[in-house]
Design a protein that fits this description.
Blueprint (H helix, E strand, L loop, with lengths): L7 E4 L2 E3 L1 H7 L2 H11 L1 H10 L27 H7 L8 H13 L2 E3 L7 H5 L5 E4 L6 H14 L15 E9 L4 E10 L6 E9 L6 H17 L13 E6 L1
Parallel strand pairs: 7-8
Antiparallel strand pairs: 1-2, 3-4, 5-6, 6-7
């Protein structure tokens, strides 16, 4: 439907491409993109990416969230593709998705070892291959731009060499009236070590995506101070942390 260079109209005299839209979290861009794709296509990709299903493997009390079976009455597929209308998503689902973006497109089941024996016996469990390698460069470019100069810039660690890639999200929860702020990310670009999803919920103006990015930035700085990124990691491993606040 679009390429990395396609310009979509987002204002009276303003156009954006995918990188800028991801960087600045422009809802108008993704609303138009959703309309062009149509509900069936948006739905197919949403479910492929793990929305509406459990992200973990035998994680007690995990909620699968939900994904609409038809376009929402309020705003249709455009609103669903921009503000997430009708979609319920969990931090675990987004953290698993960030990990897939980091590792090249493999969606793993999240696991939680409870003992050293379980850690020693740990084996990754693949849920599915997303087959998104051909579009990941464009997605990563936008996520990097979000951290360098966009809505996720508060996640950057000026004292570190590792730059996270991320995407903010701000919306309202109509079922439990409140504001929601998201930040989905992984670090770093060259040698991913960690996937991180931050969820904020409340009724103040501080609850928004950029604030969630700020929380992630504090986590990344703390990890850097603890020499987390300097440790020797097993090849191909990406750790996942999901934090709600």
């Amino acid at each position: 439907v679009i390429t990395r260079d396609t310009m979509l109209k987002v204002g009276r005299r303003k156009y954006m491409n995918l990188t800028e839209a991801l960087a600045h979290s422009n809802n108008t861009f993704f609303e138009e993109l959703g309309r062009r794709m149509g509900f069936d296509t948006v739905s197919r990709y949403g479910r492929l990416l793990g929305l509406g299903e459990l992200a973990g493997y035998n994680l007690p009390d995990e909620h699968p969230g939900s994904f609409p079976t038809q376009a929402p009455a309020f705003g249709g597929v455009g609103r669903m593709s921009s503000f997430g209308e009708g979609i319920q998503v969990t931090p675990l689902q987004l953290a698993a998705l960030a990990s897939a973006f980091a590792n090249g497109g493999t969606l793993y089941y999240l696991q939680y070892p409870h003992s050293q024996e379980e850690v020693d016996a740990f084996q990754p469990r693949v849920k599915r291959d997303l087959n998104i390698g051909n579009v990941l460069p464009e997605v990563r470019e936008g996520m990097l731009a979000a951290v360098l100069y966009g809505t996720g810039r508060l996640s950057a660690d000026p004292g570190g060499e590792e730059t996270p890639l991320g995407k903010t999200g701000t919306c309202d929860d109509r079922t439990n009236p409140s504001r929601i702020g998201w930040f989905l990310s992984y670090a770093d670009e060259a040698h991913p070590r960690i996937a991180l999803a931050v969820l904020l919920r409340g009724n103040t103006r501080r609850v928004k995506g950029p604030t969630a990015a700020q929380v992630a930035g504090h986590i990344y700085r703390t990890l850097r101070q603890q020499n987390y990124f300097g440790e020797t990691a097993s090849a191909g491993t990406v750790k996942t942390i999901s934090t709600g606040k």
